Amino acid sequence: MVYQIISYVLLAMKFYTYVLIARVLMSWVPDVERTSFGRVLYRITEPYLGIFRRFIPPLPLGGGYMDFSPIIAIFAWSFVIEGVAIVLKWLFL
């Protein structure tokens, strides 16, 4: 029973990784952000991504700016997933 709960928690966290990646890909096509799907993704991911945007400004690249904060956020999220997995397995298994 405990193993199933741990696997569901980790599955939900990995699913959020895919949501973050979808948000990054969605930013390449600006019209998608105006759809209902885009607004839902924005509401789900912006609280987490906003933390990184406060500390990592967009860098000038050619004629525009490149926002590297989502890349850093996804890497940080993968470390969080691994840390949670280790802690949950240590506590319950």
UniProtKB/TrEMBL annotation:
<keyword id="KW-0812">Transmembrane</keyword>
<comment type="similarity">
    <text>Belongs to the YggT family.</text>
</comment>
<keyword id="KW-1133">Transmembrane helix</keyword>
<feature type="transmembrane region" description="Helical">
    <location>
        <begin position="6"/>
        <end position="28"/>
    </location>
</feature>
<dbReference type="Pfam" id="PF02325">
    <property type="entry name" value="CCB3_YggT"/>
</dbReference>
<protein>
    <submittedName>
        <fullName>YggT family protein</fullName>
    </submittedName>
</protein>
<dbReference type="InterPro" id="IPR003425">
    <property type="entry name" value="CCB3/YggT"/>
</dbReference>
<keyword id="KW-0472">Membrane</keyword>
<feature type="transmembrane region" description="Helical">
    <location>
        <begin position="68"/>
        <end position="92"/>
    </location>
</feature>
